[in-house]
Structure formats: structure tokens, C-alpha cells
TrEMBL record:
InterPro entries: Pyridox_Oxase_CS, Pyridox_Oxase_N, Split_barrel_FMN-bd, YjeF_N_dom, YjeF_N_dom_sf, YJEFN_prot_NAXE-like. Its EC number is 5.1.99.6. (6S)-NADPHX binds at N74, N75, G76, G77, D78, G143, F144, S145, F146, H147, G148, T149, D180. It comes from Dichanthelium oligosanthes. This is NAD(P)H-hydrate epimerase. K(+) binds at N75, D139, S183. NCBIfam families: yjeF_nterm. It catalyses: (6R)-NADPHX = (6S)-NADPHX; (6R)-NADHX = (6S)-NADHX. The lineage of its organism: Eukaryota, Viridiplantae, Streptophyta, Embryophyta, Tracheophyta. Its cofactor is K(+). Coiled coil: none annotated. Binds 1 potassium ion per subunit.
């Protein structure tokens, strides 16, 4: 998140309404009474929001194994729904559900999870060291109807999460995500004696409850994109807008990011020299077709670098307008900066960056082996010079014609050393 977006999120958090326990219960009753919702519906949306928030922050490649601890009420039901969605997203969930509620809604959710072969683990059979077995633990024990102090077996389960959260290095322990309320916290006062769970993420549902003001973890999200105007108006709720089609929205300040640590693990299928077509243009067209089929956004967008007569480079994005055996074509206004550069110096470079497919095509004179080896498999098409495709008007096309090509496996070259 950019610092601009982070400060917007922080400002949004400050303005969001926080609910009392009573208002939260009352809103629930109104939604499921006069406003026509069913509990199944709301729980489905709540659980989906939790799964969406988890997936937004905890990337599958590094956090696969998820334990969901479910309580006896609707908060537990949200956890069961989240387990199903996380499974379909690609995570490997396990569920601990010690006090099952014998109602069709809950038994149906359990049957759905069983049909996905999601393991149910008894509380007493949970591994001694949760850190070794799980990357994420979802606390869906208690929500806004919690009162007093937790009774067995949840007292022990909560204590296990408390001990996990005191381990200093968050990289070495599972991330703890609380659904709606960190279980054991007072719904309005928060962690009253300071000995409760300290979740890394809180997913508030409908609107945050008062205790959420005491949440100091790095990720606070809001879910439950179903609040209709009669509720917003009656309770004077200020809630942030949800972006696009998202089921959750960050309401806390995003943690500041160390740019140098931002690094994806690029896992791409192996690309061997024997698999590359002899003609680079055929190879390009095959990859281009695959990029179009994969519905990449603007696969025809390419970075064009030109160099003026003093040797000073400039880059910008342009659209590919055609490609054939003679080269890559784009259009420009003859008065443009790039046209001016090209009139002085025909050398240019092109780069197609198809991140979602872990692929790049570089049409260039020179390249930087060091940076590209960290990235994707790349096809280099070398030594391009540009020629004008004259048109009668003030705009026209340029064609970059490369001379030869080779390919580089990027990170894969280290995995498949030949
Ligand atoms: N409109 C919404 O925002 C929706 C929220 N959902 C989720 O529902 C919970 C609230 O659910 P509810 O069933 O009312 O209560 P809880 O899950 O918090 O727990 C009730 C459950 O727990 C038992 N209990 C209470 N105190 C204790 C204690 N000290 N020790 C042991 N057991 C305790 C009680 O007896 C009940 O059995 C909300 O937070 C959201 O997560 C809906 O899913 C969708 C709509
Ligand atoms: K909870």
C-alpha cells in the first residue's frame, strides 16, 4: 500500500463507527427480522469476508496450513464458512470445533467441510506445538455475545493462543486472526487485564465493536458487505466504502513496508531451450495468444525505451499495434518525444511484462543479467533498430526489427541447472 493509501485507510479508521454490544445484537435482530435476511445468508457473507481478508494479507505461497478454532455460536459458524472458502482458494484448513451446536445450519456446514475432507481435530488432540503445524490460526470462538470469562475447553484454547502471541518473532509463529472480537476480550472494554489474545489481524463484521479501538495489531479489516440504508441511517453508521467487488476493506492503518523486503517467490513452469520455438516471432505470437487467452489486462502494453543523440534514455508505455516477421509496430505522433529520439537515434528497446504468467519478452540491445535472473523466464530478442513506417499524416508507425534471440530461464535456471 502506498503511503497515500495508508493515510487514507488511517483516516477512514478514525471515522468508522464502533458499536456497543447491545447495538450489535440489536442490528443482528433487525437484519434477520424486518429486513428479511436469514442467518445462513449473513454467516455466508461474514465467513467469505474473513477468507477474503486472510487471502489479501497472508499469501498462499507462504501460509498454507490454517487451523480454525470454532466456538458454539454464530462466530463459530463464521469460522466454519471461512474454512470452506479458504479451502476453495487453495489453503489447507483444519477445524477444531469442540462444542458443536445441534442445529441444521451448523451440521450442514460441518457436512460441507467433511465432503471436502477437511480434518476436524479434537481440542485435546491438537499438536503440542501449534507453530510447527500451522501458518495461520483463526480464532472464531466468541463474537459479540460473549460475557464473563471463558469456560472450558475455550479457556485452555484461548490460553494457547495467548502463549503463541507472546513469542516475539512473528515470522516464527502462526499469524492469529480474530473474527469480529478477539475471543476472551470484553466486547466493549477490550483486553481488560492485558493477558488476552493479541491477534495479528482482526476482521470486524458489519461494523467494529467498541473493543476494536484497543486493537493494536497490524491488520484491521471490515467485512459483512450487506448493511442496508435503514440500518446505516437508524444507527448513524459511518462505514468505509468497499473497493470494487471486494468482500472486505482495510480500516486500520497499513503497516509500513520495507521496500527492500518486498519480494515475490516466482514459481514458474520450467522453460527449457528445447521447448522454445526456433523462430522468436512464432514464440512471441504463441505467448501473446496465451496472454490474451489468460485474459491479462492489456497484454499489448509494452515499455518502449528510446535514446536521444546525447545518449540519454527515456521510457514510457505504448501499445503494440502489430507484429510480423519484420518486427514490432507501434504508432506515435511525429512531434512526440519518442519520435524525436528515434529520428536522432534508431536504437530502442521494448519490454513486455506479463507478471501474472511469470513471463517477459525483452526486445533490446543490451540487458542486465543480474536483475533479470531474479525474475521470470525471459525471451530476449536482440539488437533492435527502428524504422519509420511513413504515413501521409502527422502521425505514423515505427517498426523495431530485432536481429537474433535467445532465452533465459530467470530464477528457474538455478532450480534446473543443466
Ligand atoms: N450481523 C452480524 O454482524 C453478523 C455476525 N455474525 C457473527 O455472529 C457473532 C455473534 O454470534 P452469537 O451467536 O450471538 O454469539 P457468539 O458467537 O459471540 O457466542 C455465543 C455463544 O458463546 C457462548 N458463551 C458466551 N459467553 C461464554 C463464556 N464466557 N464461556 C463459554 N461460552 C460462552 C454462549 O452460550 C453461546 O453459545 C458475531 O460476533 C459475528 O461473528 C453472523 O455470523 C452473521 C451476522
Ligand atoms: K472471535
Amino acid at each position: 500500500m502506498t503511503s497515500l493509501a495508508a493515510s487514507a485507510a488511517a483516516a477512514a479508521a478514525a471515522e468508522v463507527t464502533h458499536l456497543t454490544q447491545r447495538d450489535a445484537a440489536e442490528i443482528d435482530e433487525q437484519l434477520m427480522g424486518p429486513l428479511g435476511f436469514s442467518v445462513d445468508q449473513l454467516m455466508e457473507l461474514a465467513g467469505l469476508s474473513v477468507a477474503a481478508a486472510v487471502a489479501e494479507v497472508y499469501k498462499l505461497s507462504e501460509h498454507t496450513r490454517v487451523l480454525i478454532i470454532c466456538g458454539p455460536g454464530n462466530n463459530g459458524g463464521d469460522g466454519l464458512v471461512a474454512a470452506r472458502h479458504l479451502y476453495h482458494i487453495g489453503y489447507r484448513p483444519s477445524v477444531c470445533y469442540p462444542k458443536r451446536t445441534p442445529k441444521p445450519l451448523y451440521s450442514g456446514l460441518v457436512t460441507q467441510l467433511e465432503s471436502l475432507s477437511i480434518p476436524f481435530i479434537h481440542a485435546e488432540d491438537l499438536p503440542y506445538d501449534l507453530s510447527r503445524e500451522f501458518d495461520i490460526i483463526i480464532d472464531a470462538m466468541f463474537g459479540f455475545s460473549f460475557h464473563g470469562t471463558p469456560r472450558p475447553p475455550f479457556d485452555d484454547l484461548i490460553q494457547r493462543l495467548v502463549s503463541l502471541s507472546v513469542i516475539g518473532n512473528s515470522d516464527k509463529r502462526p499469524a492469529i486472526i480474530s473474527v469480529d472480537i478477539p475471543s476472551g476480550w470484553h466486547v466493549e472494554e477490550g483486553d481488560v487485564n492485558g493477558g488476552g489474545i493479541k491477534p495479528d489481524m482482526l476482521v470486524s463484521l458489519t461494523a467494529p465493536k467498541l473493543c476494536a479501538k484497543k486493537f493494536t495489531g497490524p491488520h484491521h479489516f471490515l467485512g459483512g458487505r450487506f448493511v442496508p440504508p435503514p440500518i446505516l441511517n437508524k444507527y448513524g453508521l459511518k462505514l468505509p466504502p468497499y473497493p470494487g467487488t471486494s468482500m472486505c476493506v482495510r480500516i486500520g492503518k497499513a503497516p509500513s513496508v520495507d521496500i527492500s523486503s518486498l519480494r515475490e517467490n516466482y514459481i514458474s513452469p520450467e522453460l527449457l531451450e528445447s521447448q522454445v520455438m526456433p523462430d522468436p516471432f512464432d514464440q512471441f505470437l504463441r505467448w501473446f495468444d496465451e496472454a490474451v487467452t489468460a485474459a491479462l489486462r492489456e497484454p499489448n502494453a509494452m515499455a518502449l525505451t528510446t535514446v536521444n543523440k546525447e545518449g540519454k534514455p527515456s521510457s514510457r508505455m505504448v501499445l503494440l499495434k502489430g507484429v510480423d516477421k519484420q518486427g514490432f509496430v507501434w504508432y506515435t505522433n511525429y512531434g512526440s518525444h519518442k519520435a524525436h529520439d528515434l529520428s536522432e537515434n534508431p536504437n530502442a528497446a521494448l519490454l513486455f511484462y506479463w507478471n501474472e504468467m511469470n513471463r517477459q519478452i525483452i526486445v533490446t540491445l543490451n540487458y542486465d543479467w543480474v536483475s533479470t535472473t531474479l525474475m521470470h523466464p525471459v525471451i530476449f530478442i536482440h539488437e533492435g533498430t527502428c524504422s519509420l513506417i511513413p504515413k501521409p499524416e502527422y502521425w505514423g508507425g515505427y517498426r523495431l526489427t530485432p536481429r537474433f534471440f535467445e532465452f533465459w530461464q530467470g530464477q528457474q535456471s538455478r532450480l534446473h541447472d543443466r
